[in-house]
Amino acid sequence: MTPTRTSKLERGRSALGPALELVHTGRAPTRAVLTAELGVTRATAGAVAAELETLGLITVDSSPGAASGTQGRPSHRLSVNGDGPVVLAAQVHADGFRAALVGLGGRLIATAPGAGTASADPAHVLREVVEAGAGLLKETGRRCVGAGLAVPSAVAEPEGTALNPLHLAWEAGAPVREIFTRSLARARIPGIAGETAARGYAANDINLAALAEHRHGAGRGAEHLLVVGTGHRGVGGALVLDGRLHTGSSGLALEVGHLTVDPGGRPCHCGSRGCLDVETDPLAFLEAAGREPGPEVSLLKQAKELILSDYESDPAVRTAVHTLNERLGLGIAGLVNILNPDRVILGGLHRALLEAEGEHLRAVIADRSLWGRSGSVPVLPSSLQHNSLVGAAELAWQPVLDDPLGALAS
């Protein structure tokens, strides 16, 4: 067959991936929208939707209906299949780990929290988190098509090594992707068609949080999305440009935790002083509020609960929120000046600081940034629970999004 006589079947197959991504990200809620977004005929869009339904990836409403206030022929509604395949998502952080099964659409199907601390041996931790995920697969009986891992470190590409796990007792340069992949093979976690075991993917946790928020959360629709957040320890940042995660030439871009916001501040793990990493994380907040960190609960949980319970009644807590927002606003303003994003999302403790004193934080950013003065840069809280886990799942879903038929062919 010559290139000028591409069959309908070939055209349809080439549209399967783009179509699945549109449904996966909620941008094609109906077959009519899918037709328009793909730029194909209604017949082709119908055939593509039917093939994705046959693969068990989406569902097509058999009784189309028009939305209220609309005109024209009713269109079949499209949604991800809630009973379809899943991927294993794993996250390691300073206070332990968590495993989850995540379906299309960023839907958390099941989660399993892990140990209260992360071992100094990455092989031990990753073996445990994979075993927890294997337990979830056994309990649910779901088909697994891949696995992704979020870690609190820059992950170098293409080596897949954790270069600076500052808040874990791991050796710098730990080959986390290789260890993760070996753990998946040992646990016999399946992957896409043609793989004897799932291929392991790994990336920085805040990068993955940004990817998840852009596809499924508060960042949906942004062209230049900046995400800043603090989880259990430290501060991270990520940038999504034109729908793609910006990781730099080797996966190390946006190490925003080491922006200096107080030259005379706390010593940082990087060797400097007064970095965002140590001035606006949960430990810094607890210290500013005059609270002694407790060993039984994660620092992040302690800090967030303190804001919720004592902000109105305790002046020390209000002062701590105000102080950290001053520091955080200064750092974000610098990033806004450099990157000129069209949206900023704050996660983890930073979300709680924004929700407690949003007007003050936005005023600091506006006062310190050229573009912020115009009031045109929305600063929003993250909207997804466990967004780093959802982002880790996105890594594993990508081969299916790229070629659904090839990935799932038996």
Automatic annotation (TrEMBL):
Positions in coiled-coil regions: none
InterPro entries per record: ATPase_NBD, ROK, WH-like_DNA-bd_sf
Tree of life domain: Bacteria
One Pfam assignment: ROK
SUPFAM superfamilies linked to this entry: Actin-like ATPase domain (SSF53067)
Family: Belongs to the ROK (NagC/XylR) family.
Name of the protein in its database record: ROK family protein
Annotated source species: Streptomyces daqingensis
